Automatic annotation (TrEMBL):
Top-level taxon: Bacteria
Database matches in Pfam families: DUF4192 (PF13830)
Originating organism: Arthrobacter stackebrandtii
Protein name, per record: DUF4192 domain-containing protein
Length: 425
């Protein structure tokens, strides 16, 4: 967290509320959005689902929200917007009143006093801090004023669009669009699937597999052919290989090989080497294989310590120096490649791909997106363990360590984005 936004002036309530859907990428529903402040500058943005109506520990829920925003040490205040189900028609009948009071108290304890707050219903919005009917008549201002605000117009002018919900966007991204290509991938996958699932952790085989992923990333946006797509999909069928691919995406293939070796994941090769068609032809020869021959013993030991931490979002690797986060440029390419692969298969091969996409979003701090990917993963392969584990961490408010540290956090896709963290309750 921690990137400031000072290129667009946000002053009136409708300006701030117009800012929120552009930063999130969609109009939030049944949500709490908290924005850190440093003086008059906007800092990190946190979105959480409204807690269930029967939740007993609303104060604990509020404390989680406050603690997440407080991880930005430069913040000294906050703004709150509650996006509710009903409009607020009477001063004595504030929806989510208990939640709002708990939020104020929790943020005060973390020395992030609430500077202003708003309630947004389906049709009207109004300040939570003003009960004066002269300036804030009931039931509030029409939500059209948000769409007509200066900030909304400025974001649109800069090319920002408020899209449909994450669930709808993901559904579109992962749906098979080319049935003919998907059939070719399915046929090509038959020669890889069993061997890679049973023998994918062979030292030589894993080197080739990580090399294939590296080649696909290097060549992107050139799309893999059916053989390469089938190989990449089949490789994720082995849990140990999937984990090595995650580490390689965040750091690099050689460090992933070193970590796999140090943690005892590598095994002797016990099956013929599998590789995509034409893998060894042309100028590349065998240059894409991952290797550990040139990695020092110290690096191997360091990789062992990092290997498991990376899987739960603790991608630091600073070892006493300035902490290092994931290679966000690599992960941006990996995301696009994985989305392509998800749309290239309608079979169970899609499940680990969706889990990896959720993992990337979780590392970014975008819990809503991550949670939806994990949900789709579970629909395809119920009980997929890594997706379940990460989804449980989301449900208890655990945010990936790299998303909470300003030195390692993802700072969005636009130069003027502040850091955004979403938590699906």
């Amino acid at each position: 967290m921690g990137k400031q936004i000072d290129k667009i002036k946000v002053s009136a309530g409708e300006d701030l509320l117009a800012f929120i859907p552009h930063i999130l990428g969609y109009w939030p529903e049944r949500s709490i959005v908290c924005i850190g402040m440093n003086g008059k500058r906007l800092r990190a943005t946190l979105r959480m689902d409204l807690p269930p109506e029967d939740m007993n520990d609303v104060a604990g829920f509020a404390a989680v929200a406050a603690s997440q925003l407080a991880s930005d040490r430069e913040a000294d205040g906050c703004l709150i917007a509650i996006f509710g189900v009903d409009d607020w028609y009477s001063p004595r009948d504030l929806p989510q009143q208990g939640l709002y009071e708990d939020l104020r108290e929790a943020f005060e304890k973390f020395r992030l006093p609430v500077q202003d707050a708003w309630y947004v219903g389906p049709n009207f919005w109004r300040s939570l801090e003003c009960a004066n009917e002269r300036c804030c008549p009931w039931p509030g201002k029409d939500n059209a004023s948000i769409r007509e605000s200066f900030v909304n117009a400025e974001f649109i002018y800069r090319g920002s669009l408020v899209r449909e919900s994450p669930q709808e966007q993901i559904q579109t991204l992962i749906t098979v669009s080319d049935e003919s290509f998907a059939r070719s991938v399915a046929v090509a996958g038959e020669q890889f699937r069993d061997t890679l699932q049973n023998s994918g952790s062979g030292a030589r085989q894993l080197g080739v597999t990580l090399g294939a992923w590296e080649m696909a990333l290097y060549q992107w946006p050139k799309r893999p052919d059916a053989s390469m797509a089938a190989f990449l999909l089949a490789s994720l069928g082995a849990v140990a290989v999937r984990d090595a691919v995650i580490v390689a995406m965040a750091t690099g293939p050689n460090s992933a090989m070193a970590g796999a070796a140090a943690t005892g994941t590598l095994r002797p090769d016990d099956a013929p080497l599998q590789a995509p068609v034409n893998w060894y032809g042309g100028n590349q020869a065998e240059g894409w294989d991952a290797a550990i021959e040139d990695v020092s013993d110290e690096a191997v030991m360091r990789a062992a310590a990092d290997y498991g931490n990376i899987l739960v979002g603790e991608v630091c690797g600073g070892h006493g120096s300035r902490p290092l986060g994931p290679d966000w440029n690599r992960l941006a390419k990996a995301e696009q490649l994985l989305q392509f692969l998800a749309g290239a298969t309608g079979s169970a091969d899609k499940a680990p791909v969706l889990c990896l996409l959720g993992w990337i979003e979780w590392c970014r701090g975008r819990g809503t997106w991550a949670g939806n990917y994990f949900h789709f993963c579970d629909e395809i392969q119920p009980g997929y363990r890594l997706a379940q584990l990460l989804d449980r961490l989301l449900s208890v408010g655990y945010v990936a360590a790299c998303a909470k540290d300003p030195a390692t956090a993802w700072h969005g896709q636009r130069d003027d984005d502040p850091e955004t963290t979403e938590q699906a309750a």
